C-alpha cells in the first residue's frame, strides 16, 4: 500500500498575513517549535513581536521582578500595543512572571546569563559547576507554556572571547545547551550574539539571535542578509534593536524603530525584540539615566515610539493594503501522484491574495491526474516531453506577471509568494529564488541524502545576489521568460534551471535570493533513487558542457563565480579559518572567514578521481610483467584511502540533532557511504553522455601548434575592446571553450581544444592617426600541466621497462604515454586552427589593407613607423 505524504498543517488565519500571536495563538499545551526559517506554536506561525523587559531594581531579597501589580499593568499595555513576547535578558524570571505572561497571551525569552559565568573559563578557582547552575535554573520553570525559548547568554564580552579563543567559548555554550535540553527537552535554545563576536560557530542552537543596532535601513538590510547566510536553514531572530531618544530625539527614535521593524520582517526574520519597554533601567546597583531607549517613560507614559512600534508590528511581515501582482504557480509532474497531493495542499494554504495554480501532467501513467483533479487547479495533460518542455507548457498557460515553479515533491511556506514578490519589487530582478529545506523525515536514507552532496543548492554571488537558484523554488517575470524563449527542452530531468540562470545573466538580468521564501522539499528516500538522481545530474552536466563550454574548466567542471550553499559543503575538508578581529580586537563587526579545502581533499572528491584509481589499478596489474610496478600499489592504496577518509570525515561530523546513539550511528554510516559513492554516480552519468576528460570538439581543421605572431593593417579605427570582443564571440561560435584573461594575466583569451591542449592569444592595437590601426596577435600553444608530466613519467617507465627486457610492460606504458602526447598535440592543433580561422573572420575584408589576415605584413602599404614594428610568424 502506498503511503500518502502530507505537509504539516501550517495554516495562518485571516485577517492578517500572519497571526499576531496574541491570546488566540496560545493553543492549549502547545510550545513553540522551529519549522524551517520560522517559529510555530501548534499549527500556526509565530512572528515574534517583542520588547525587552528589565533590568529593574531588586527588592531586599534580591528579587528583580517582585511587583506583580506593575508587571500585570505592563503586560496588559503590551497586549494592547500588539506585542506578543517579552525578553528577560539578565535574570531568571520567577514563575509568577511566567504565569502573568501566560494570562496575557505573551511568550517569554528566558535569559540564563551564561555571560556572567564565562570568566570562570579563564580563572577556574572557586568555579561553580556551571552546567548544574543552568540545570537548576531551567528546572525551576521547565515546561511552562509561556516560555518562548531559553537564551544561554547575552553578548559574552569580545575581549574575553578573544582571550579564551573561539573554540573554548563554543564548547562552553554547547555544554550549557546540552544541560538545558537534558532538563527541558521540549524547550528551544538560542544564544544572544552581537556583531563583535559574530564569528562564533554555534550550529547546535535551535535558531540564531542577534542584537543589532543599525538605524540606517539599507545598512540593516545588508547585515540581516549576512546573518541569514550564517543562520542557514534556521530562523533568525533580532533579540535587540532600538535607538536612544535622549541623544536623537523621540520623533527620530519613533521613525527609526518603524523602519528597523519593517525591514527586519521584510528581510525574513522570525521576529524582533525592541530594546526596551521602558526608560526605567537599573544596573550595577544604580539607576541608569543617561539614555532613553524605552517605548515608555519610567512612569509608563507612552512615547511616540510605542505608536510607531504598534503600527509596524501590526503590518508585519507585510502591509495588508499592499497591491500584490498576480502570480502563476506551476507544478510540473511525471508520475508524482504519491507526493502531488501534499504539494497542492501546501499551495492551498498560501496566504497570497491573487494566484493561479497550474499542474502540468507530463505524460504520467499513475494517478497523478486524479490527484490533481481534487484541487482547484488548471490541469494540463501532455505527452511526455521532459521537464524543460513541461515548464514551457505551464508558462504558456500562465496569466500572472510572475511565474513561480515548485516541484511535485515540495510544498511552500504560507508566505512563500509574499517574500518572492517583495524581492522582485525591491530589487527589480528578473528571477528570484529561496531555500529548499528537507523536512524531518522518518526515513534514515532521506535524512542522510539531505546531508550529502549533489542536492538542489543555490549559488550566491553575495548574500542577496544569486548565480544559480534551483528549479524546485524558482520564480521569474513572465515577460522575461518569454523574451528568452522559455526553458531549453533538451533538459528532460535536470539542468534546465542552470541553463536558464546562465541565459538570464548573459542577457544582463539580475537573479536575487530571499532566505525567507522557503519551500519544503523531500530528498530521495533510497540509495538506489539517490544513485539514479546523481547519474541523471551527470547526464545534465554533459548537456550543459556541450552548450556552455566556456562555463566549464578543462576538467569538465563548472567554474562557479559564487559560493555554493548546502549542508554538505560545511565539512568538505580539514581546513583552517581566520577571524577578522581588527586591531586589538576593537572591530565592530568581527567575521569568521573559512579557509579553502586542501587541494588533495578537493581532488579526491571529483568524479574523475575514480578514473585515476582505475589507471593505477591497471598499472598495478602489470606487475607480473615488470616487478618495479609494485611501487604503484602504495599509490593505489593512497588514492583509494583519500576519498574514503574524506567521506568518513564528512559523514561522521554531520549533526543529526539529539537522537538515540544507535540512530545517530546509522545516519553517520549512511551519510559517509553516500559521500563516497556520489562522485562515482556522477562519473557514470558524465561519461555515459560524453563528458569525459578526453572529450574534444569536432575539429573544423588542424594547424601546426607553434607560436605565431600576426599583424593586420586596418583603415577603420575601432575600440580595441570591441575588436577583442568580436574575436571572443567568433571563437565561442566554434564550440570550443573560451576563457578570458584576468587582471594579472599576460594573455587576453584562451581557447581549449580539450582537457590536454589549448592556445593563448595576446592582443595589441597601435593607433597611427587618420583613423588607422595596426593590430597584432600572438598565438601560443598551451599543453596540459597535468598530462605532460604524466606522459613523461610513463615514457620514462616504458624506457626503463624496455631496458629491463619487460617488453609487454614497455609497450603498454609506451602506448599510454603516446596517447597522452598525441592527445595534447591534437587538441593544441584544433585550438590553433580555430584561433587562426577566427582571426581571419574578425575584420570585414574591405577594412583590411593587407588581405584578411596575412602571416606577413605588406610593407609597401604600411607607414614606416608601423612597418618597423611588423612581425612575421
What's the end-to-end separation, in Å?
Answer: 75 Å
CATH topology of the largest domain: TIM Barrel
Count of DSSP H/I helices: 25
- Overall geometry: globular
What percent of the residues sit in helical stretches (DSSP H or I)? 25-40%
As laid out across the biggest beta sheet, the strand order is 4-5-6-7-8-9-10-11
CATH top-level class of the largest domain:
Alpha Beta
Structural class: alpha/beta
Estimate the strand proportion.
15-25%
CATH homologous superfamily of the largest domain - what is it? Glycosidases
Task: Label this structure with key terms.
alpha/beta; eight-stranded parallel β-barrel; 3 domains; 873 residues; 38% helix; globular; seven-stranded mixed sheet; Spore Coat Polysaccharide Biosynthesis Protein SpsA, Chain A; disordered C terminus; TIM Barrel; 33 strands
What does this entry show, briefly?
The chain is α/β, with parallel strands linked by helices and 873 residues long.
Amino acid at each position: 500500500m502506498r503511503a500518502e505524504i502530507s505537509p504539516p498543517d501550517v495554516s495562518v488565519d485571516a485577517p492578517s498575513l500572519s497571526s499576531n500571536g496574541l491570546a488566540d495563538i496560545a493553543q492549549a499545551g502547545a510550545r513553540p517549535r522551529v519549522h524551517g526559517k520560522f517559529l510555530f506554536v501548534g499549527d500556526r506561525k509565530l512572528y515574534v513581536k517583542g520588547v525587552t523587559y528589565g533590568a529593574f531594581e531588586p527588592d531586599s531579597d534580591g528579587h528583580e521582578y517582585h511587583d506583580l501589580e506593575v508587571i500585570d499593568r505592563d503586560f496588559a499595555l503590551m497586549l494592547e500595543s500588539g506585542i506578543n513576547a517579552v525578553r528577560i535578558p539578565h535574570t531568571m524570571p520567577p514563575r509568577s512572571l511566567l504565569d502573568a505572561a501566560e494570562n496575557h497571551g505573551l511568550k517569554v525569552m528566558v535569559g540564563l546569563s551564561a555571560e556572567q559565568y564565562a570568566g570562570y573559563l579563564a580563572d577556574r578557582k572557586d568555579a561553580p559547576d556551571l552546567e548544574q547552575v543552568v540545570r537548576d535554573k531551567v528546572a525551576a520553570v521547565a515546561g511552562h507554556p509561556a516560555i518562548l525559548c531559553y537564551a544561554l547568554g547575552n553578548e559574552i564580552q569580545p575581549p574575553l572571547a578573544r582571550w579564551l579563543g573561539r573554540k573554548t567559548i563554543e564548547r562552553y555554550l554547547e555544554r550549557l545547551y546540552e544541560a538545558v535540553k537534558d532538563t527541558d527537552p521540549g524547550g528551544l535554545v538560542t544564544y544572544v550574539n552581537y556583531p563583535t563576536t559574530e564569528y562564533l560557530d554555534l550550529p547546535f542552537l535551535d535558531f540564531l539571535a542577534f542584537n543589532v543596532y543599525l538605524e540606517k535601513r539599507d545598512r540593516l538590510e545588508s547585515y540581516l542578509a549576512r546573518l541569514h547566510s550564517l543562520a542557514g536553514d534556521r530562523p533568525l531572530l533580532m533579540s535587540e534593536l532600538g535607538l536612544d531618544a535622549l541623544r536623537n530625539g523621540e520623533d527620530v527614535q519613533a521613525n527609526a524603530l518603524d523602519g528597523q521593524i519593517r525591514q527586519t520582517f521584510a528581510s525574513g526574520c522570525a521576529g524582533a525584540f525592541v530594546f526596551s519597554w521602558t526608560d526605567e533601567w537599573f544596573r550595577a546597583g544604580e539607576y541608569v539615566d543617561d539614555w532613553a531607549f524605552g517605548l515608555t517613560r519610567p512612569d509608563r507614559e507612552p512615547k511616540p515610539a510605542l505608536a510607531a512600534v504598534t503600527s509596524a508590528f501590526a503590518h508585519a511581515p507585510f502591509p495588508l493594503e499592499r497591491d500584490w501582482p498576480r502570480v502563476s504557480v506551476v507544478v510540473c509532474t511525471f508520475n508524482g501522484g504519491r507526493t502531488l497531493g501534499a504539494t497542492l495542499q501546501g499551495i492551498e494554504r498560501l496566504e497570497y491574495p491573487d494566484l493561479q495554480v497550474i499542474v502540468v501532467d507530463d505524460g504520467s501513467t499513475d494517478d497523478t491526474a486524479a490527484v490533481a483533479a481534487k484541487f482547484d487547479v488548471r490541469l494540463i495533460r501532455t505527452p511526455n516531453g521532459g521537464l524543460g518542455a513541461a515548464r514551457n507548457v505551464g508558462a504558456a498557460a500562465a496569466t500572472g506577471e510572475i511565474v513561480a515553479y515548485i516541484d511535485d515533491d515540495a510544498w511552500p511556506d504560507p508566505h512563500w509568494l509574499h517574500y518572492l514578490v517583495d524581492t522582485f519589487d525591491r530589487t527589480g530582478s528578473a528571477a528570484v529564488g529561496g531555500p529548499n529545506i528537507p523536512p524531518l523525515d522518518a526515513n534514515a536514507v532521506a535524512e542522510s541524502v539531505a546531508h550529502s552532496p549533489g542536492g538542489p543548492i543555490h549559488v550566491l554571488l553575495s548574500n542577496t545576489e544569486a548565480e544559480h537558484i534551483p528549479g524546485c523554488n524558482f520564480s521569474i517575470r513572465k515577460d522575461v521568460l518569454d523574451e528568452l524563449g522559455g526553458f531549453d527542452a533538451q533538459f528532460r530531468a535536470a539542468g534546465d534551471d542552470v541553463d536558464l540562470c546562465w541565459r538570464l545573466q548573459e542577457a544582463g538580468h539580475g537573479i536575487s535570493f530571499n532566505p525567507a521564501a522557503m519551500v519544503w522539499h523531500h530528498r530521495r528516500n533510497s540509495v538506489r533513487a539517490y544513485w539514479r538522481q546523481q547519474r541523471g545530474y551527470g547526464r545534465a552536466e554533459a548537456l550543459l558542457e556541450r552548450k556552455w563550454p566556456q562555463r566549464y574548466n578543462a576538467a569538465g567542471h563548472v567554474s562557479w563565480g559564487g559560493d555554493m550553499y548546502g549542508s554538505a559543503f560545511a565539512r568538505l575538508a580539514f581546513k583552517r579559518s581566520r577571524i577578522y578581529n581588527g586591531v586589538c580586537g576593537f572591530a565592530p563587526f568581527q567575521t569568521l572567514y573559512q579557509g579553502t579545502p586542501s587541494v588533495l581533499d578537493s581532488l579526491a572528491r571529483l568524479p574523475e578521481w575514480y578514473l585515476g584509481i582505475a589507471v593505477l589499478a591497471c598499472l598495478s596489474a602489470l606487475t607480473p610483467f615488470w616487478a618495479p610496478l609494485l611501487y604503484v600499489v602504495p599509490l593505489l592504496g593512497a588514492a583509494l584511502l583519500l576519498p574514503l577518509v574524506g567521506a568518513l570525515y564528512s559523514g561522521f561530523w554531520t549533526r543529526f540533532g539529539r537522537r538515540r546513539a544507535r540512530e545517530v550511528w546509522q545516519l553517520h554510516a549512511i551519510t559517509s557511504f553516500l559521500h563516497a559513492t556520489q562522485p562515482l554516480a556522477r562519473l557514470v552519468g558524465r561519461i555515459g553522455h560524453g563528458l569525459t576528460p578526453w572529450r574534444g570538439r569536432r575539429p573544423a581543421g588542424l594547424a601546426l601548434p607553434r607560436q605565431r605572431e600576426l599583424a593586420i593593417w586596418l583603415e577603420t579605427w575601432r575600440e580595441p575592446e570591441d575588436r577583442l570582443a568580436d574575436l571572443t564571440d567568433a571563437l565561442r561560435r566554434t564550440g570550443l571553450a573560451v576563457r578570458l584573461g584576468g587582471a594579472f594575466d599576460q594573455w587576453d583569451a584562451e581557447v581549449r581544444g580539450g582537457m590536454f591542449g589549448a592556445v593563448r592569444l595576446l592582443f595589441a592595437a597601435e593607433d597611427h592617426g587618420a583613423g588607422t590601426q595596426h593590430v597584432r596577435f600572438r598565438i601560443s600553444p598551451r599543453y596540459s600541466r597535468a598530462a605532460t608530466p604524466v606522459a613523461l613519467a610513463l615514457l620514462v617507465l616504458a624506457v626503463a621497462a624496455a631496458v629491463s627486457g619487460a617488453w609487454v610492460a614497455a609497450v603498454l606504458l609506451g602506448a599510454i604515454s603516446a596517447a597522452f602526447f598525441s592527445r595534447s598535440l591534437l587538441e593544441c592543433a584544433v585550438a590553433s586552427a580555430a584561433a587562426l580561422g577566427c582571426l581571419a573572420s574578425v575584420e570585414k575584408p574591405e577594412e583590411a589593407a593587407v588581405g584578411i589576415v596575412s602571416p606577413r605584413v605588406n610593407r609597401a602599404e604600411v607607414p614606416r613607423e608601423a612597418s618597423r614594428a611588423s612581425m612575421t610568424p
